[in-house]
Structures are given as C-alpha cells and as structure tokens.
From TrEMBL:
Protein name (record): Putative odorant binding protein 2
Keywords of this entry: Signal
CDD domains assigned to the protein according to its UniProt record, in alphabetical order: PBP_GOBP
Signal peptide: 1-21
Chain's gene name: OBP2
InterPro entries with a match to the protein in the record: PBP/GOBP, PBP_GOBP_sf
Family matches, as Pfam families: PBP_GOBP
Gene3D superfamilies linked to this entry: Pheromone/general odorant binding protein domain (1.10.238.20)
UniProt organism field: Ectropis obliqua
Superkingdom of source: Eukaryota
C-alpha cells in the first residue's frame, strides 16, 4: 500500500500518515495540484516554506499560523466564506483524486466525523483560522490523516 499524502485535500501541507491503496499517479496528481495553493498561502501570510517543511517534519500543527490552514481550505472551498467546513466539497475533492472504493469510504467517514468542527466555538468567526486548525486536528486525531502526511 502506498503512503498517501492527504495534504492536497486538507491543504495544509502541513499531519500523520494514512495507508491508502492509491497509485503513485494519484499521489503525484494530488501533490501537483496542492503545491501552488500551499505556496500561495505561505506567501500571502509571510510564512517561509522552510518553516512549513520544519513543521511538517516535526508533525507540529501548532508551529504554523492557523490562518495558513484556513487559506488553503478556503482556496479549495473546503471552508466557506462564513468560516465553516463544507464536507460535501471535501468529499467531491476526494473523488477527483482517489478512485478506490475503500479509500473513498475512509475519506468520506473522515469528512462526516469532522463536520462536528462546525459546532465548536471559535474566536475568529468567518476568518476560519481557528476552525481550520480544528478541522486539521480532527482529521489527524480521528482518522490518522492530515496536512503533515507523508
């Protein structure tokens, strides 16, 4: 089984590994599509890519500004203009890049479970930074997937 980089879906380029049976072509397509968005978000927020890499290597979600996660999620429409997680978009993104039924089922379960982040109190409202970090943490804690995946 290949190690799947969930970073493209979570857009955080920045958490844990999940073993999915996706092909190398699928992984490369995910990375290819995520990298420009992640780089753009780092530039917009004045975050050095070296810091992103260091945070990823340390698997430290707290090392980066949570608005970095929000930027990515918003650019791929996984978090909407109101700062809320949109699981239907996450699921649609999964279907664009992953084609195995078992893998899609696991990713769908992750999106369903993590919808609960929309019920959690945040201090920044529509900015979505707090919720984006909660979302990344949910995927990591509940399903072993996340923005620092290898």
């Amino acid at each position: 089984m290949a190690r799947f980089s969930f970073v493209a879906f979570l857009g955080v380029a920045a958490v844990i590994n999940i073993a999915l049976a996706i092909t190398e072509d699928e992984k490369n397509n995910i990375r290819l599509n995520a990298l420009p968005v992640l780089t753009s978000c780092a530039q917009e927020l004045g975050i050095k890519m070296e810091d992103v890499v260091a945070a990823r290597q340390a698997k430290n979600l707290d090392a980066l500004n949570p608005c970095y996660y929000a930027c990515f999620f918003k650019k791929i429409n996984v978090i909407d203009k109101d700062g809320l997680f949109v699981p239907a978009v996450a699921k649609a993104n999964h279907q664009k890049y992953v084609h195995g039924a078992d893998d899609l089922a696991r990713l769908t379960a992750s999106a369903d479970t993590c919808t609960s982040v929309n019920d959690q109190a945040v201090t920044d409202g529509a900015n979505g930074c707090d919720r984006a970090k909660l979302l990344a943490r949910c995927f990591i804690d509940n399903h072993g997937v996340g923005p620092f995946s290898a």
